[in-house]
Specification:
By secondary structure, this protein is an alpha/beta fold. The protein is built from four helices and ten strands.
């Protein structure tokens, strides 16, 4: 009799088994208009509810914190250690708010979909190039630097990139910095060209 009572209590406390689903935890079970027709659906944890076939739900929809490799998860999914994701070609492996984020192309190369880089303050951007006190190197100085170092000033060398990698936000800013410096050089050269044209025109007279 005690054995029967124990089994009955277990089902009341930890859930129920059915041909169509498995539920473990107090108040765990199916939900929705099709809850009685669910196939291979599972809900695990306190107040865990599943409403689709072939679905696996862990914990309450508002309280659950799932931890893997740690005992004190702070987020909905908190993982400590290395995890691997296998993906098919031309199929997204990660979606954010139902939008594709990361996938593989036919050659197995990663494809990162549309995203933005956000900067903490204006000093991280390159517009300081246009400030009056910006120390713009002369083209002769740039030429000497390139001859000595084989890369542009304020840009990491190939060996540094291989050893340390690059931060994308910093690299985007550095590339724009060089474009803005080229713009200033072009403006200077155009002024010199205009001055030479004017001088030649006067000499012709």
């Amino acid at each position: 009799m005690k054995k029967v009572y124990f089994i009955f209590s277990f089902f009341l406390t930890f859930g129920a088994f059915a041909q169509s689903g498995s539920y473990f935890g107090r108040y765990a079970g199916g939900v929705g208009v099709n809850q009685n027709a669910l196939e291979r659906a599972s809900a695990i944890g306190y107040n865990a509810k599943v409403s689709v076939s072939d679905g696996l739900v862990l914990g309450d929809t508002s309280l659950v914190k799932v931890g893997i490799g740690l005992s004190n998860p702070r987020y909905r999914l908190d993982v400590k250690g290395v995890f691997n994701t296998r993906m098919a070609y031309n199929s997204p492996v990660y979606k954010i708010n139902d939008r594709n984020f990361l996938e593989l192309d036919d050659e197995g190369q990663f494809v990162l979909n549309s995203f933005k880089i956000k900067y903490a303050n204006e000093n991280q951007w390159s517009d300081r190039v246009f400030e009056k006190n910006y120390p713009l190197m002369s083209l002769k100085e740039v030429e000497k630097f390139i001859a000595k170092n084989n890369h542009l000033p304020n840009v990491p060398s190939a060996s540094e990139v291989v050893e340390k990698g690059v931060a994308m936000d910093a690299m985007v800013s550095k590339l724009l910095e060089k474009v803005e410096e080229l713009t200033l050089y072009t403006i200077q050269q155009q002024k010199e060209i205009d001055a030479l044209k004017k001088e030649i025109k006067q000499l012709k007279k």
